[in-house]
Design goal:
Number of strands: 0
Structural class: mainly alpha
Distance between the termini: 127 Å
Order of helices and strands: H
Largest sheet: none
Shape: rod-shaped
Strand content: under 5%
Radius of gyration: 37 Å
Helix content: over 70%
Amino acid sequence: MEIIYILFGFLILVLVAIYIVLNSLLSQLQNSGNTINAYGEEYMQQRNLVEQQSKALELIADNMEELKKDVRDMKDIADVFYKYNRRA
């Protein structure tokens, strides 16, 4: 009979230990979910800002390439006028 009481007590201790472990895991999951939500909006704002900056830098790079082409064209036209004026 004493063995039954000992086994019953051990079973209760195991169940309490399982409850404590599961409860701590659940609280950790809830806390990590809150942390993700707290940083989620800030992360999205930073991401949007980086995307806007990236688009602006791409536009600047494109404008610089167009400017380089325009300067080359102006140089070619200036060379033509210079050659024409030297012949005249």
